[in-house]
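#lab-general

N.A. 3:47 PM
ok so I finally got the sequence cleaned up, no stray characters, all 73 residues accounted for. can someone with queue access submit it? mine expired

B.Y. 3:52 PM
send it over

N.A. 3:53 PM
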Amino acid sequence: MIIAGLWALPLALAPPLFSRDLYSYLAQGTILHLGHNPYDSAPVLLSRLGRQHVLDAVSPFWRHTTAPYGPLF
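B.Y. 4:20 PM
back already:
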């Protein structure tokens, strides 16, 4: 238990790397929820669907990228 606590200590003190990637997954889920295919449509579609607030949280690196993993991944 002590070893696990010492191992996790740096993770508790530093912000997570690539923490904004979570928002790209949220955007893909929103695209699917709105009836579109996240494997064909990138998060930038959300601006036309009235979900600009979701798109604003997505990193600019991922805004024009469709879902990179297949549905069976």
